[in-house]
């Protein structure tokens, strides 16, 4: 499994994807790629992801970030996408979406998110 953490899609994940060969390697990988939305209810969990997304004309929403990364069956990166319960209606053609509480308020909630990501990846294999 490859995991996109709930990091800023522009200045964190975007910077990594801009390194020559990284995006091509991810697209060539047979491992399921699961992402965790950094946006909950239209707002970033922390930081300035909303302003960064606006600068590249991407909607600040779980759906907007999923569309930005793209669904694998349509040439994008993601096979699966974890969203917060508030964004449970987030849907993108070709992308398996799982909703659960995404606010990591303690070790237990962090473990739950990691376990959900692993389970989603297993279901995609």
UniProtKB/TrEMBL annotation:
Keywords: Magnesium, Transferase. InterPro entries: CofD, CofD-like_dom_sf, FbiA/CofD. Pfam families: CofD. Gene3D superfamilies: CofD-like domains. GO terms for molecular function: LPPG:FO 2-phospho-L-lactate transferase activity; magnesium ion binding. This is Unannotated protein.
């Amino acid at each position: 499994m490859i995991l996109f953490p709930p990091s800023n899609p522009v200045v964190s994940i975007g910077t990594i994807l801009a390194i020559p060969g990284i995006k091509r390697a991810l697209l060539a990988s047979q491992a399921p790629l699961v992402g965790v939305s950094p946006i909950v209810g239209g707002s970033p969990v922390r930081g300035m992801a909303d302003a960064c997304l606006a600068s590249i004309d991407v909607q600040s929403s779980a759906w907007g970030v999923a569309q930005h990364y793209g669904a694998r069956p349509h040439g994008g990166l993601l096979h699966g996408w974890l969203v917060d319960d508030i964004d449970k209606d987030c849907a993108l053609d070709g992308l398996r979406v799982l909703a659960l509480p995404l606010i990591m308020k303690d070790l237990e909630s962090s473990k739950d998110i990691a376990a959900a990501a692993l389970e989603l990846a297993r279901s995609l294999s």
